[in-house]
Structures are given as C-alpha cells and as structure tokens.
Specification:
- By secondary structure, this protein is mainly α.
- It has one domain.
- 85% of the residues lie in helices and 0% in strands.
- Helix 2 packs antiparallel against helix 3.
C-alpha cells in the first residue's frame, strides 16, 4: 500500500516519472523474465541440454529482447 502511495506522490510531483518507470519496467522485465531464468537453466544443466532446447531457449531470449527494445523505443519516442 505504501509503495503505491509513493508512486502516486512521485507522479504528482514529477509528471514525467511515468516514462522513467516504463523504461525501468522494460529493462527489468526482460532481464528477470527472459535472460535470468534461461541463464540459470543453462548453468544448472550444463552439458545435458539437447541442441533443440538451445535453439528454443535462444529464440525465447531473442523474442524477449526484441519486446524489451520495442518497449524502450516506444517510451523514448513518447517523450
């Protein structure tokens, strides 16, 4: 509850804080949702991952990075 109040106060005091939060959300969601889990998976099962799984994992990472880059681009162009 306090976190939302803090965001609301920041939005009132700094009208452009939404763009900053959008940029942070794009970067951290890609990192935490796509890159970090696949990196942990590769470290955990090193040497026993089938080649098709490598292809699928890197495809998911690429799609995540493209989605994050489009989020950053749309935020930057809205300034």
């Amino acid at each position: 509850m306090g976190f939302y109040a803090l965001i609301m106060i920041a939005a009132i005091l700094y009208p452009n804080i939404l763009q900053v939060l959008n940029l942070l959300g794009s970067v951290f969601s890609v990192t935490l949702g796509f890159i970090f889990p696949i990196t942990i998976y590769h470290k955990r099962f090193k040497g026993s991952i089938p080649p098709l799984t490598y292809v699928m994992n890197y495809t998911v990472v690429i799609l995540g990075v493209v989605g994050g880059a489009s989020g950053v681009y749309s935020t930057v162009t809205s300034f």
